[in-house]
Specification:
Helices cover 78% and strands 0% of the residues. It is mainly α and 242 residues long.
């Protein structure tokens, strides 16, 4: 979702003149590092799951969930820890995603590669549109996207709380037409959040903020892509059920 770790004000106040500044290439390199860690960890759990060690895969997935939450909180409140916490978050998120992907793949063979393809297609399409100026990251764009993302988070939270009492929001989490329409909307909003990530990296480099913020750019991009991947998985699963 919209990355809560950084914002436009941070870009403006963190400008540096006496140390090495952030660069776009530096942020890209750190993004590759994070995704290598995420992919490696996810493949470990994936392999265990399909070799029949589902208990170990489940345990690692739960470890990944707990550690990813802790490391995310650390990143939120301690900026100096980003260079350590972001790789830890990526690896732990990989453990969780490996288990989620394997379960979807078992239920719907081939769905994981379809979701990966869709995620990277969205990434490169939005990057192209951003580079040619077809989509501009204006303050109005940020505000509308922030409200939309927050609304989705609220819907998920309400549904989660309701599930503890045997209640759920009707239709939108099913494979009905309404449910599929809702998933398409969420996928679009998740994809548009990539524009904010691209803009942070570009503006950070132009404003010469500290090199440590390359990790923030990489981290924000990874968080958005993971969310997008999960939402595409969910959408494809709904379509398979029809």
């Amino acid at each position: 979702m919209t990355n809560p770790v950084f914002n436009q004000n941070m870009v403006e106040r963190e400008r540096v003149l006496d140390s090495e500044p952030m660069t776009v290439n530096g942020a890209i390199n750190k993004t590759f590092i994070l995704f290598a860690l995420l992919l490696g960890a996810s493949l470990v759990v994936w392999d265990l799951f399909f070799k029949g060690f589902t208990d170990k895969a489940f345990m690692l997935g739960m470890v990944g969930l707990v550690v990813s939450i802790i490391s995310f909180i650390v990143i939120m409140f301690n900026r100096k820890a980003i260079a350590i916490a972001a790789p830890v978050y990526a690896a732990s998120e990989g453990l969780l995603l490996g288990g989620i992907s394997a379960m979807f793949e078992k239920a719907y063979p081939g769905i994981a590669i379809q979701a990966i393809t869709g995620t990277f297609a969205a990434l490169f399409s939005l990057l192209f549109l951003y580079r040619i100026g077809a989509i501009k990251c204006s303050e109005k764009f940020r505000s509308v996207l922030f409200i939309s993302t927050l609304s989705i988070a609220g819907i998920y939270l309400i549904n989660l709380i309701g599930s503890f009492f045997g209640m759920q929001i009707p239709q939108i989490f099913t494979s009905s037409t309404i449910g599929i329409g809702f998933s398409i909307l969420v996928v679009c909003i998740a994809a548009l959040n990539l524009i904010i990530d691209f803009d942070f990296i570009e503006q950070g480099a132009q404003n010469m903020i500290g090199k440590n913020y390359e990790w923030y750019g990489a981290f924000g991009l990874m968080v958005t892509l993971v969310w997008l991947y999960i939402e595409i998985l969910n959408l494809l699963a709904k379509l398979r059920e029809r």
